[in-house]
Amino acid sequence: MIRPTEALRLLHINWILLRHGLDEVILVTHLFRPLRFILYLSPWYWWRRNRLPPYPVRIRLALEDLGPIFVKFGQILSARRDLVPVEIADELALLQDAVPPFSGEEARRIIEKDWGRPIEEVLDAFDETPLASASIAQVHTARLKDGREVVVKVLRPGIEKVIRRDVGL
Question: What is the mean pLDDT of residues 54-65?
Fold first, then answer.
C-alpha cells in the first residue's frame, strides 16, 4: 500500500515532469492514453511545445528539480552513451559539476553540530568558499592545528531525509 507521503511525492514528480514539458513520459501509460489524445488535439499543447527548450535540456532541468537521487541517476546515465543518445548524455554531463553550493556559514554550522564543538578547536583555518559542490555534498579546504592542509566534505543540509524519501519510492 502506498503511503500518503509517497503519493504526494509521486504527484510532485509528475508535476515537475509536466512543468518541464516531459509529459510524454507520463502520458505513455495506459491510464493516461485518453488524456494524451485530447492534449494532442489542443492548439495550446502545440503552441507551448514549440516554445520549450530542447529535449535534452528539459531532461536535465527536471532531474535538477527532482533532487539529488535523480541528479545522481542523470550523472550515471551521462557516462552510459550506450544507453542514451549522445545529445542527452552530453547535456546530462552538465550535472557532474553544475550544482550550486550552499552557504559557507551553513557548512560551518553542520560541521560544528557534527563535531559537537566549535570549528576553531579543531582547525586553524576553514575556507567558507567551497572548493567543489555536488548533488550530495560539497568540499571545503581547511588547515589542521598541526599545520596539515586538508579538505572537509560536508553533506548538504537535510540530504539524508531527502535520499531516504526518494529511495523508498
Answer: 95
Are 13 and 66 in contact by the 8 Å Cβ rule? The answer is yes
- Compute φ and ψ for 132, nearest 5 degrees: -150, 155
Residue 135's domain is classified under what CATH number? Answer: 3.30.200
pLDDT value at 30 more than 80: no
Residues 32 and 14 in one domain: yes
Reported as a single tens digit per residue, the pLDDT across 13-24 is 988 998 898 877
> Which residue, 96, 120, 137, sits at the end of a domain?
96
130-141 pLDDT, tens digit per residue, is 999 888 999 999
Structural domain count, the chain: 2
The grid coordinates listed for 161 are: 531525509
d(CA 131, CA 152): 10
Give the CA distances from residue 125 to residues 105, 119, 136, 141, 156, in Å, rounded to whole numbers and listed in that order: 14, 9, 24, 8, 21
